[in-house]
Write a structure and sequence with these properties.
Elements lengths: L4 E2 L6 H4 L2 E4 L2 E4 L2 E2 L22 E2 L3 H9 L11 E3 L11 H14 L5 E6 L5 H8 L5 E8 L12 H14 L4 E6 L10 H11 L4 E4 L6 H9 L17 H10 L9 H9 L11 H4 L4 H10 L5 H10 L8 E2 L4 E3 L4 H11 L3 E3 L18
Parallel strand pairs: 1-5, 3-6, 6-7, 7-8, 8-9, 9-10, 12-13
Antiparallel strand pairs: 2-3, 4-5, 11-12
Helix pairs in contact: 2-3
């Protein structure tokens, strides 16, 4: 089926691991390589930004088997992402593998939430094929930024705009989200950008907005191609300055918009947020009242015994765990340990060494007072 070349033995080891745990769920990435050249791409962190042609790491059925046999996978519960780390799922050839995985998961009867993130062309035939899925809860998040500087983002934002309109027009059971990112202070946060985003928000089923992932590898790449420093420092978390967020919320007054991906996904499917953000009430203060009611009904502070068993299961010291009405706090954890606990509990799980400051919504400290 595939016209994509097979990845060779020199592929970096971390890219050979086709399943990993990320905040929005288990991520399946058995196709790697992308020609789109978005300067802020996380592929800088995996050492394969220069791999412009997609390569297949393993066959689709084997990849799906690896996904559902992963220690953290739970049928009907675990959120799934496909091709969100090393390629775009709707590139020619790549989307054949996307559809094969979606249909295989659906054929096996899984009802898990599945997220597919793209900035490329989504065609009416693509939507029709996805409309045939009966079991999985599919959300297509279309990345749009409105960035005009081709050094930062060579892909024309008009492509994403067309994809949003196509999805909104033809989607039946699947849902479409305007994934407004990365918003960069002084680059794409002006009045025209805000107005265009609001117009597109009226087309999509929901809008999620977020800032720039600005690690040192990405910062160095921009410096190498002559892009002036976008911020004064790199950061582990995404950067979205306080005033930029305030301007967005003022412009979107009355239009549904969400700070977190899982909040937008929950809204379009009419279910509670699988990341349990409701405990962090200042995240949810912009959500529609009906969605807050859904999340409030599902929000239950977990018992110490349940949390201790989960901590033991993922190899954390249960004696270091604390629980309050906002989150579970652990110590010495890796991301996949926290996220597995979080999705199992539908409750926020934070590491004590990486605190989430009140009102900053899990963003970097840069630009906040």
């Amino acid at each position: 089926m595939s016209k994509i070349r097979i990845a060779g033995p020199n592929l970096p080891e971390q890219l050979k691991q086709v399943v990993d745990y990320r905040k929005s769920g288990l991520s399946l990435n058995h196709v790697v390589g992308c020609p789109l050249d978005c300067g802020y791409c996380v592929r800088h962190l995996f050492g394969n930004f220069d791999m412009k042609k997609p390569h297949l790491v393993m066959p689709d059925e084997q990849a799906v088997d690896a996904l559902i046999s992963h220690w953290a996978f739970r049928a009907g519960t675990t959120p799934i992402q496909i091709f969100n780390r090393a390629t775009d799922p709707f590139l020619p050839g790549v989307k054949d593998h996307l559809f094969a995985c979606l249909e295989e998961l659906d054929r096996r009867g899984f009802s898990n939430p599945v997220l597919v993130i793209t900035r490329w062309h989504v065609l009416p035939d693509d939507v029709e094929r996805m409309n045939g899925l009966k079991n999985i809860k599919l959300t297509v998040l279309v990345t749009w930024s409105g960035i005009d500087d081709k050094r930062i983002e060579p892909v024309d934002s008009a492509i994403a705009e067309a994809s949003i309109r196509t999805l909104a027009l033809h989607a039946k059971r699947l849902r479409c989200i305007l994934y407004w990112r990365p918003i960069i202070a002084g680059v794409n946060d002006g009045p025209d950008n805000l107005a265009r985003a609001k117009e597109l928000a009226g087309v999509a089923h929901a809008t999620v907005f977020t800032g720039l992932f600005y690690r040192e590898e990405i910062r160095s790449y921009f410096a190498s191609i002559g892009v002036p420093d976008l911020y004064d420092d790199a950061a582990r978390r995404k950067i979205l300055p306080e005033q930029v967020e305030a301007n967005i919320l003022e412009a979107f007054d009355g239009t549904p918009i969400f700070r977190k991906t899982s909040c937008g996904v929950a809204y379009v499917h009419g279910v509670a947020d699988y990341n349990g953000h409701f405990g962090i009430r200042e995240i949810c203060d912009i959500c529609p009242l009906h969605q807050r009611e859904i999340c409030a009904a599902a929000h239950k502070t977990p018992s110490a015994d349940v949390v201790a068993r989960l901590a033991d299961a993922v190899g954390l010291d249960a004696a270091t765990v604390t629980i309050d009405g906002r989150r579970v706090e652990v110590a010495g954890s890796a991301e996949q340990q926290r996220y597995f606990m979080q999705h199992t509990l539908n409750y926020q799980v934070h590491d004590r060494a990486q605190p989430h400051h009140y009102g900053r919504h899990g963003k970097a400290d840069l630009g906040w007072t």
